[in-house]
Specification:
The chain is 46% helix and 12% strand. The protein is an alpha/beta fold. The chain has two domains: 6-172, SPOUT methyltransferase, trefoil knot domain (Alpha/beta knot, 3-Layer(aba) Sandwich), CATH 3.40.1280.10; 192-253, Helicase, Ruva Protein, domain 3, CATH 1.10.8.590. It has a seven-stranded parallel beta sheet with strand order 3-2-1-6-4-7-5. It starts with 5 loop residues before the first helix and ends with a helix. The structure holds S-adenosyl-L-homocysteine.
């Protein structure tokens, strides 16, 4: 028999938030709550759900109502992930611009397994039933998370997708030893809110020094975001870079 005590696994996975974007069918929200509770996860965030709360959600949750009643509701994705340091966007679709990708298993190993930094707050964002996640929402993500499956039929039902990802996270927790938790000397990773301010400052700086042409802003900023998302800045590094921006802006004025 393979199972974990709910107390330890709950604690271990409490750094991971499941975020659902504008879900249309409340039944899916209930099924997600159930999928999460089976895998000892409990942090559910809903961005502008179409209908919630709802009897359909409660009935599909079937005993996981505690997760529904604790679910936090937000008006925007950026608010829902503001306190998170790593954001993954789950998507079945191929994109015209390539994002760094992790499979569900790689994500679990990185953020819940042996190598996982348990102090890192992670958001895993799932898209709408009919249209998934938009590119500007993936711009907020460090990685695209993919569940490997039949390439001719790759879109899972929302709750099924959450089930697979939660399962991988749950299994990954079983491989960890307490002694590997965190690097106590390291500065914490920057939160999404701090990164947001960082990007605003970066954009302003390259505009001030005349590097950025208005018609190129979106594509240049998207590529810069990809670079900085790839390296996962901590707060100290972010302070240094913002210091350089300030210096460049002042120098340019002179
Ligand atoms: N029709 C939508 C897919 C909706 S499925 C589209 O065109 O994108 C609902 C959500 O489940 C997706 O947005 C995604 O977050 C998740 N999902 C479904 N299949 C997935 C897969 N193979 N890998 C990763 N996430 C998946």
């Amino acid at each position: 028999m393979f199972y974990f005590s709910s107390v330890s696994v709950n604690l271990v996975l409490s750094h991971i938030k499941i975020v659902l974007m504008e879900t249309s069918h409340p039944g899916n929200i209930g099924a997600v709550a159930r999928a999460m509770k089976n895998m000892a996860m409990s942090n559910l965030r809903l961005v502008s759900p179409k209908i919630f709360p709802s009897a359909d959600a409660t009935s599909r949750a079937s005993g996981a109502n505690d997760i529904l009643s604790k679910a936090e509701i937000y008006d925007s994705l950026s608010d829902a992930i503001a306190d998170c340091q790593i954001v993954l966007g789950a998507s079945a679709r191929d994109r015209t611009i390539s994002w760094p990708e992790l499979t569900a298993r790689e994500c679990a190993e990185k953020y819940a397994g042996l190598e996982g930094a348990l102090t890192t707050k992670v958001a895993i964002v799932f898209g709408r039933e009919n249209s998934g996640l938009k590119n500007h929402e993936l711009d907020l993500c460090h990685y695209l998370l993919r569940i490997p499956c039949n390439s001719d039929y790759s879109s899972l039902n929302l709750a099924a997708a959450v089930q697979v990802v939660s399962y991988e996270l749950f299994i990954a927790t079983g491989q960890r030893e307490e002694s590997t938790i965190g690097d106590k000397d390291a500065d914490p990773l920057a939160s999404q809110k701090q990164m947001d301010l960082f990007y605003q400052h970066l954009q302003q700086t390259i505009a001030d020094i005349g590097f950025l042409h208005a018609d190129k802003t979106q594509s240049v900023m998207r590529r810069l975001r990809r670079i900085f998302n790839r390296i996962e800045l901590d707060t100290k590094e972010l302070d240094i870079l913002r210091g350089i921006f300030r210096y460049s802006q002042n120098h340019n004025k002179k």
